[in-house]
Design brief:
By secondary structure, this protein is mostly helical. The protein has five helices and no strands. The protein starts with 9 loop residues before the first helix and ends with a helix. 26% of the residues are buried.
């Protein structure tokens, strides 16, 4: 060794111990996700049923003015689910909000299949010209549901604080 230099201590090379995580340090709260998903479904299911009824009764529903407000209500439903999940699990609001939005969509799919089966309008479920659950739309729905669940989880507590002050 050169003069004036000392050997590095062995303590400097030892990495710190990993943090001690208890079982209460979970990020995802299943109760919050389920409550958020059910809150979202409380908005989405009636809107979906109303849309199916209007589509059945109207000759050109896709060209009517009903399409846009009903679509916006479904989007609001995902945000409501995220806000509810964030209120139940305030330590990880975005994770639980996103999963609540996704959970609402996953729970909505069987309802959509039942509506498709009851209507019997000669459309394919996953394929055909106007598939009831086209794969591309399903993927887009997953992205939108997660994003709006996170948006609701982010905005919900802020709006609640603003109302309280």
């Amino acid at each position: 060794m050169m003069a004036g230099m000392t050997a590095p201590s062995s303590e400097a090379r030892v990495p710190p111990p990993p943090p001690n995580h208890s079982t209460d340090d979970r990020v995802v709260d299943g109760r919050a996700v389920l409550r958020g998903a059910l809150a979202a479904l409380a908005v989405i299911v009636p809107v979906t049923i109303l849309r199916a009824v209007l589509d059945h009764e109207m000759a050109r529903f896709d060209d009517s003015g009903w399409v846009y407000p009903l679509f916006l209500l479904i989007l609001v439903g995902y945000a409501v689910g995220g806000a509810v999940a964030a209120r139940v699990a305030p330590d990880a609001p975005l994770s639980n909000g996103a999963l609540a939005g996704l959970g609402a969509l996953v729970l909505w799919i069987p309802i959509r299949v039942v509506i498709w089966a009851v209507r019997e309008d000669n459309r394919g479920l996953f394929s055909g010209h106007k598939a009831a659950l086209a794969p591309g739309q399903l993927f887009g729905g997953l992205v939108i549901a997660a994003g709006l669940g996170m948006l609701g989880a982010s905005l919900g507590p802020k709006l609640r604080r603003r109302r309280q002050s």
